[in-house]
């Protein structure tokens, strides 16, 4: 957690970091990915067997450069197959001999027919190669409970039963042991096939959760929330976070629901408003955490049942008008967007007490840090802060205090102004299991560098490693074939003041 004191522009800004004051564990799953059958995410992203450049493709038809990029990020978990796509997806269409898999209309994005050439077994194989865990979303639109139970049996069962044997017939003897399962996706939205009321969803989700955990009590189930601060969120939490010994076979330390999903995207045409917009997610997390507690209190859930966490399984910078989903949502990201993603990630580190998972939406080609071409991959501006966090911001959140001036203008969304502070300096800090401290400072001021007195950064080695991300202007991109935004490395002695450049991301790393 980072606390904040607002001061005048004329006063001296300070950052105090306390490396020995660990606050909460950062779950590695906050650096999760997301792949959906949308645009070029799967076909042309993960899976590209028709690419004429055969050096880019492995024997499975997977993009080797995409796999290498996921490995570079050390992505711990990847959500699949959606997203809105899942509301009409029938997993059985995507298993078995490829020449027998049916083509189906695709209703979520309406851009193409779904060939089903990439399905469950291909995704599981891809996850094993990458070294990541799968996270599957269940069809709450046209799907049935029987279909969901069959998919769980196919993936996880060791028994001599129909769908487990179908998996074996399809070439996989051992179960996949998929741990994470989502109870639908955005079923509150009018764009969904079979949109539901909160009452209908809560009842259905609870009954599905009970059946799924009767089949496999080891799985983790994720409830479909909205923004974290809506009536939908509280109703579904109160309906589904209950103490149900019957549904759990008498286990007094378990719950049918393990996480609550929320989705937020941010964007603005104004570069500063755009960079600061993820502060809305911070307030959403705090409110949602309170709603989880309130549901547990009202439903008398004992403390023997672990507290449910938040699964922020869709987040990113996305303007659907600029990059329509039905056209593949291929955003071109700027330096301003890179700052926004860094603040998004700062939020997750600061709020690590409440976050069980987060998944950037999406991981390749569709509103993504990584773009594929027939010749290779382009690492967009937002790739670089994501890389720094994935590599270094692990371990525990540590106490930090910032005193700085604040942005006073209009915000997007507008309610940020009355709900949470918007300091020019957005900061998080963590200490890894190796004892190395990492602190990220985003200076969101478009024109002014910030000279800051920094306390608590005295390194035992005498040097602080510095990684900085900035650019010549807020709107520079990496999509024109030149990497104009990347990471520059330098060193600092850790004493006195440090000047954070205008509109920049800076990571300081040192061993106390």
Automatic annotation (TrEMBL):
Alphabetic keyword roster: Carbohydrate metabolism, Glycosidase, Hydrolase
Q: In which pathway does it act?
A: Glycan metabolism; L-arabinan degradation
Which domain of life, per UniProt? Eukaryota
Q: From the UniProt record, list the reaction(s) this protein catalyses.
A: Hydrolysis of terminal non-reducing alpha-L-arabinofuranoside residues in alpha-L-arabinosides
Extract one GO molecular function annotation from the record.
alpha-L-arabinofuranosidase activity
Sorted alphabetically, the Gene Ontology BP terms of this entry are: L-arabinose metabolic process; polysaccharide catabolic process
Q: What is its EC number?
A: 3.2.1.55
UniProt cross-references to SUPFAM superfamilies, sorted A to Z: (Trans)glycosidases, Glycosyl hydrolase domain
One Pfam annotation, family name? Answer: ASD1_dom
Q: Which residues form the Alpha-L-arabinofuranosidase C-terminal domain?
A: 313-504
Family per record:
Belongs to the glycosyl hydrolase 51 family.
Q: Summarize the protein's role.
A: Alpha-L-arabinofuranosidase involved in the degradation of arabinoxylan, a major component of plant hemicellulose. Acts only on small linear 1,5-alpha-linked L-arabinofuranosyl oligosaccharides.
Write the protein's name: non-reducing end alpha-L-arabinofuranosidase
